[in-house]
Amino acid sequence: MEQRISLVTLGVEDLARARAFYEALGWGGARQPDDEVCFFQAGGMVFGLWTALGGHGAPGIELAHNVRSPEEVAGTLAEAERAGATIVRPAGRAEWGGTTGAFADPDGYVWEVAHNPAWRLAGDGTIRI
User: Fold this and answer.
1) Which helix (DSSP H) or strand (DSSP E) does residue 77 occupy?
2) Coil, strand or helix at 86
3) Which of 95, 98, 107, 106 lies closest to 6 in space, CA to CA?
4) Is the pLDDT of residue 54 over 70?
5) Is 46 in contact with 40 (CB distance < 8 Å)?
6) Is the dihedral of CA 52, 56, 57, 58 positive or negative?
7) Domain residue limits, the chain
8) What CA–CA distance (Å, rounded) separates 91 from 78?
């Protein structure tokens, strides 16, 4: 697993309110594909707001590690499991068109491992929406 974080997502109670707050801070270029999630480009990574984080509702936090191909999702999950992680969501197709799965580190922090065909992952690991 490459040493990087692609995405930090915060679970929020009210997506419109949360988006308005970050926009009031001067953040621009938000992309909101539906009523549940909103993304901001944040340097070489992405910052997300989600009303139903991990299916557990808000508040919460999830880190993400994006990979370059759908096949890498299962491989990265297996690597994490060998290192001591617990698989909380096996690799599978997502309703948004990509491949995703998730593991929890020994302290319970959840990492999504995902391949999103609509996002560009550069050679240095930076991601662009």
Assistant:
1) helix 70-82
2) strand
3) 98
4) no
5) yes
6) negative
7) 7-128
8) 10
The amino acid present at 29, given as its one-letter code, is G
Locate the DSSP E strands across the chain.
Answer: 7-11, 37-42, 45-50, 60-66, 86-93, 99-104, 110-115, 120-121, 127-128
According to the CATH classification, is domain 7-128 in 3.30.390.50?
no
Sign of CA dihedral 66, 67, 68, 72: negative
Of residues 51 and 94, more confidence is placed in: 94
Per-residue pLDDT at 53: 60
Residue 13 has pLDDT above 70, yes or no: yes
Q: What is the pLDDT of residue 55?
A: 57
**pTM of the predicted protein model:** 0.80
How far from each other are the two terminal CA atoms of the chain, in whole angstroms? 21
The pLDDT assigned to 8 comes to 94
Query: What are the counts of helices (DSSP H) followed by strands (DSSP E) for the chain?
Result: 2, 9
